Amino acid sequence: MYVTLTIARYTTATSSAGIASMAFFRLPLFFQKKISFYKLLGCGKNGTFDKTPDLKQWGILTVHNSIDDFKRGNKEDFQQSVYGSSLTRWWRFFKCETWTLLLEPTDSHGLWDGKKVFGELPKNTEFEGLTAVLTRATIRVNKLNAFWSNVETAAAGMATAEGFITSLGVGEVPWIKQATFSVWKSKALMKQFAYKTNNHAEVIKKTRKENWYKEEMFTRFRVLASYGTLNGHDPLQGLL
Question: Tell me, what's the pLDDT at 159?
Fold first, then answer.
């Protein structure tokens, strides 16, 4: 099983097209036979869970059983083989900057919309290389205040943590269905931040004790390829 994540960044003048894409893209993605699951995602401004949306930046996550038919040459060929021509023409017309990652899920626990969307995976594997992490949750309405008052504490120090490369705050529904996607030089360094950094570890304990989430999922990925740029550069340049 394979996963693609594309982040499209619009200009200030075309940001309304980013909003419109969340409706327009649903039909071609629904009819794309190669895709078994997809989510259209908004983005936050600060690279983690964020109340403030970035209206110039939007994402798509898709799941595929095979990548045998994907063209691996350049960004546009790869994107078109994954999503179809409608989406790539849209991005080209609105002069979007796009960054696409090809990922392979390695280990996971939890559900997304009640499903194991990445298939049956172990909770842990021995893979220790370049590691991407998706942490998502549906927050209970009566726990929204507790969640959002602790977000800054949980994220403190991530950008300067050893092994950190980049992160994105994404979400399906503002405030309620939120996710953080991050990339690390190794699983060991990611775990060092997640479980040995006091602030982050304490917030994790709170989520369990106070039952903040109606649904949650944590998944790690092997990063197979990176296409395009975000804010002028490929965050993984030289690492693959």
Answer: 83
